[in-house]
Amino acid sequence: METTIRVQLLELAEEKYQKFSAALIPNISNVMGVRIPELRKLAAKIAKGDWRTYLEHAENEYFEEKMLQGMVIGYVEMDIVERLSYVAVFVPKIDNWSVCDSFCAGLKFTKTNKEKVWEFLQSYLSSNEEYEIRFGVVMLLDYYIGEEYIIRVLQQLDEAKHEGYYVKMAVAWAISICYVKLPEPTMAYLKNNTLDNFTYNKALQKITESLRVDQETKQMIRSMKRK
User: Fold this and answer.
1) What is the pTM of this model?
2) Which residues contact 33 (CB under 8 A, 6 or more apart)?
């Protein structure tokens, strides 16, 4: 089955899009150049067929092959225990921000299984691996920024320590979304945190880039920058 999947992907590949896509993800060199909507169509088709055999034998040589697997895991109908087992197998394959963030966005079952998934995420948030932590952080960003979880989310973001650029950027991005959605608890956190200067300042920058923050607030946020 996988041979035909790769053939289909290669048929969908576009040379111009390959160059554009590869430039967005500087740390990988295995991009075919298949557009995301085409990958989604193929993933939906696989999800309606023998997806277990597909996932069991899926190859990981190309960026699109990984992206496709992540989409299929999000699309298929299965219970939470089985889905989390597939998530656990997939996460170590993540080696770039694009596969990570697309995969997280597809795990919409989290919305109705928040506590179980929260527990599941803990080992990733405390991992030593850059993309495992980013996976955990982006999952928090996508599904947990609300009144019920905000204090726990901010605490997790504060503890997500890693020198990797893609962890720091994810933490900064998440904190900016926390601020936009729930400014009061997030401001209290910004005044008392253990973030490194890069992540802290990047979070402030992202807040000031939001169209949902007024000019006066942006000025105040800029004044909080660490030297």
Assistant:
1) 0.95
2) 13, 14, 15, 16, 17, 18, 19, 21, 22
